[in-house]
Amino acid sequence: MRIAVAGGTGWTGRLVVAALKARGDEAVVLARSVGVDLRTGAGLAERLVEVDAVIDVTNIGTQSAKRSIDFFHTVTSTLLEAERRAAVRHHVALSIVGVTRVDLGYYLGKRCQEDLVLHDDHRGTVLRATQFHEFAAQMLARKGPFVIAPRMLCQPVAVAEVADHLVELAHGSPIGLAPELAGPEEHLRMEDMVRRLARARRVRRPVVPIAFPGSVGRGLTGGGLLPTASGPRGTITFDEWLASEAAR
Known about the structure:
Order of helices and strands: EHEHEHEHEHEEHEEHEHH
Radius of gyration: 18 Å
Structural class: alpha/beta
Strand content: 15-25%
CATH architecture: 3-Layer(aba) Sandwich
Largest sheet: 6 strands, parallel
Shape: globular
Number of helices: 9
Number of strands: 10
Number of domains: 1
Strand order of the largest sheet: 2-1-3-4-5-8
């Protein structure tokens, strides 16, 4: 199949492209580096010629509801319109488990994205996944005298397994909201994951857990980001991911 990856040069997108190639598919990257502006649609039509499906893993680093909503509404609308014109049969979007239960500003944009995809003439699939193992590495990569770790209860999954599942969904027919994807270990705490990674990497900066205020904080620490129903589960544990990181 010929499958396009919106955000294909990013952290998750590169693994989706690798998963497509491993399966024998042709991966078409949609990103600025190949002349595509996903906000305006410039360069998009040419890249969607004979594309069977689009996997959208675009992202923006913000906790501003306004910026998040603007980004996801604009990019998703632009993609869906271009796909209609190109007769792309399937749009698969990556979202987050608990996105409708926790009112983080970023999550409001993801809700907007989900609504657009799920109401687009039955051509869409949304996969909600739990936090990634790699999220701990993002926290560790931030500069400063301390490592800030959000207090949250999670069931983390490896990005590579998320990428494989997105590719599997893209090969099928649109199903709307797909069963939620989570990792194999229940009730891990993000601050503990960050501490374990810091020890493995011999990072000397102290890890400082922070709690979000109000209902958002209660949702993050009280299980609002955990899956509520059965669904596909990854097999890579956080310790196994840590070992693979150390080996690299």
